[in-house]
Amino acid sequence: MIQGIKHIIFDLGNVLLNIDPSLSYKALQDLNIPQFEEVYRSLNEKNIFEQLETNELSPRQFIDIIRESSGLPLQDQQIIDAWNALLLDFPLRRLQIVQQLQLHYDLILLSNTNEIHEESFNKSLQLAHGIPNIGVFFDKVYYSHRIGMRKPNPAIFQKVLTDCSFKPEHTLFIDDIEENTLAAATLGIQTIWLKEGMSIEKDIFLSITN
Questions:
Q1: What is the maximal distance between C-alpha atoms in the chain?
Q2: For 161-200, how does the pLDDT look when each residue is reduced to its tens digit (9 = 90+)?
Q3: What is the pTM of this model?
Q4: What DSSP character marks residue 7?
Q5: Residue 210 pLDDT more than 50?
Q6: How high is the pLDDT of residue 3?
Q7: Which of 113, 116, 121, 162 has the highest local Cβ count within 10 Å?
């Protein structure tokens, strides 16, 4: 563990929850939307996905925009299922690690996510492990769609520090996106960038699982 840590802030996707964004892209593509690449690029350029993550768009508005952009009479559930395709599983060992860490550190969950994904990954957690939601492992949970900010905006890290009365030098942030760790580091937070192929159980907290 990095020196002097009392508080740990965890990202969710590819830190605790396995995800693969290419699966949602493919699932949307498989809906046979005409000129799909152009449609998807336009949605990206309009920041539709980011607006969902900051609650500038409600799930209802998001679904309607996808349907209208597709030019097809898509059902709500078709769009929801495609959007949720990127969500995979919570490996049990990771959950056990967080449970162990609860005994020694303040734990915070900080994720860029959205209401549609939140409902889906908590449902899968309940089905796979009998745990009602991932928040039970944390002292506080900060989801971008609930607080109206996304990483890597430094303000989101400052909010966590202020709300929780954490000193940055005693705080560790773990994320799979380098840009997010760099933003946290500007506030003096210690960071670990979980590069592709790394995992918390294999590369950071191995001794806890043995």
A1: 56
A2: 999 999 999 999 999 999 999 999 999 999 999 999 999 9
A3: 0.95
A4: E
A5: no
A6: 78
A7: 121
Amino acid at 11: D
Rounded Cα gap, residues 41 and 39, in angstroms:
5
- Residue pLDDT, tens place only, 42-65: 999 999 999 999 999 999 999 999
What would the two tokens of residue 195 be?
């590069």
CATH architecture of 7-18+89-209: 3-Layer(aba) Sandwich (3.40)
* Candidates 3.30.390.50, 1.20.1250.20, 1.10.150.240, 3.30.420.40; CATH matching 21-84: 1.10.150.240
Which residue's structure tokens are 């005409």?
34
Kindly give the residue spans of alpha helices, DSSP state H, lying in 71-193. Answer: 76-84, 92-101, 115-129, 144-147, 154-164, 178-185
